[in-house]
């Protein structure tokens, strides 16, 4: 049995004009020590999926259906009091902006000691010793000094290292990292991701990495989910999806990477934009932007505009697309022409 199992997760937001489905039938698993990436454009539902795991969705959002099972515990049916024993303790979360996570009026040491004492029956001296050890693990220089400093006295990269140290304080089974390097420059991003990967491997911690950066996903994760308009549209081993994407949306994301463009030419891009969740197109939500659905006469294919695609197996991946078989045949013919 997987450490974490999410089945047909349905998350909605109750608005005046009616309910909006932010997540639709999202299912995935995470094994102990495994690293999973969740990618997609802004508005795809990545962060909502992450927040749902610990029921951190603010009103008017709510989990309308499905199940979230962690180590035999049904998280979405647990009371708030019981769930607090899991949050931060067995499942930790790293948010996008460390300055929004850290309390500006408490020193780093006070915040780390407070976190430990909320979950463990230990003295302040013992808690401070553990906090110091975690700061050393995340390679914070002069950790004794940093414990008595405040967040505003530290650089962005230093603050993010401290957030990682706090996430590791209680030796969790899973860390959920929601765009953990968004506010950092490129060199610091690489250092933070390398550190996070090293720590997860050392402590056999499962990692769920939420990001829009396919480069980071390819280097850090073992499996990945691609989300679009609140639904998982492709999932499987990271290396297979990066090397041979099956869904037109995934292909578009990879083709939009700068290294995929011809030098001196405009970058490739997916035409159009993510649809509003309150006004999703019929059939496949991606069909208005898809370059593969048009027939010779320019009319869209009936299946793509009428029916939500079911998952089909393609190698070790699962893809929600009506066109998988046809696209595979098209690629085969092109390879034959080249050879």
Automatic annotation (TrEMBL):
Keywords: ATP-binding, Cell membrane, Membrane, Nucleotide-binding, Transport
UniProt key word Transmembrane: no
Chief localization: membrane
Taxonomic path: Bacteria, Pseudomonadati, Pseudomonadota, Gammaproteobacteria, Oceanospirillales
Native source species: Vreelandella rituensis
SMART domains: AAA
Keyword Translocase: no
Protein name as catalogued: ABC-type dipeptide transporter
Gene Ontology MF term list: ATP binding; ATP hydrolysis activity
Residue stretches making up the ABC transporter domain: 4-254
Listed SUPFAM superfamilies: P-loop containing nucleoside triphosphate hydrolases
């Amino acid at each position: 049995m997987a450490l974490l199992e999410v089945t047909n997760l349905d998350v909605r937001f109750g608005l005046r004009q009616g309910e909006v489905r932010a997540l639709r039938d999202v299912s995935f698993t995470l094994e102990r020590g495994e690293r999973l990436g969740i990618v997609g454009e802004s508005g795809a539902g990545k962060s909502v999926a992450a927040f749902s795991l610990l029921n951190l969705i603010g009103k008017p959002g709510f989990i309308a259906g499905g199940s979230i099972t962690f180590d035999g515990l049904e998280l979405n049916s647990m009371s708030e009091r019981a769930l607090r024993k899991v949050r931060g303790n067995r499942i930790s979360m790293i948010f996008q902006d460390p300055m929004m996570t850290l309390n500006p009026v408490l020193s780093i040491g006070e915040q780390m000691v407070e976190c430990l004492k909320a979950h463990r029956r230990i003295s302040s001296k013992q808690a401070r010793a553990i906090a110091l050890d975690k700061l050393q693990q995340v390679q914070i220089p002069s950790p004794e000094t940093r414990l008595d400093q405040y967040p505003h006295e530290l650089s962005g990269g230093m603050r993010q290292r401290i957030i990682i140290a706090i996430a590791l304080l209680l030796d969790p089974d899973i860390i959920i990292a929601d765009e953990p390097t968004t506010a950092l420059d490129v060199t610091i991003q690489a250092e933070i991701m390398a550190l996070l990967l090293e720590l997860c491997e050392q402590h056999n911690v499962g990692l769920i990495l939420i990001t829009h950066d396919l480069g980071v996903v390819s280097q850090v994760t073992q499996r990945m989910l691609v989300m679009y308009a609140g639904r998982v549209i492709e999932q499987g081993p990271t290396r297979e999806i990066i090397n041979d994407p099956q869904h037109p949306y995934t292909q578009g994301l990879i083709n939009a990477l700068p290294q995929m463009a011809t030098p001196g030419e405009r970058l490739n891009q997916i035409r159009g934009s993510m649809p509003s969740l309150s006004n999703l197109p019929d059939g496949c939500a991606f069909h208005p932007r898809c370059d593969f659905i048009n027939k010779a006469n320019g009319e869209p294919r009936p299946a793509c505009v009428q029916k939500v695609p079911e998952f089909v197996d393609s190698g070790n991946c699962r893809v929600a697309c009506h066109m998988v078989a046809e696209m595979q045949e098209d690629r085969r013919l092109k390879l034959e022409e080249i050879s």
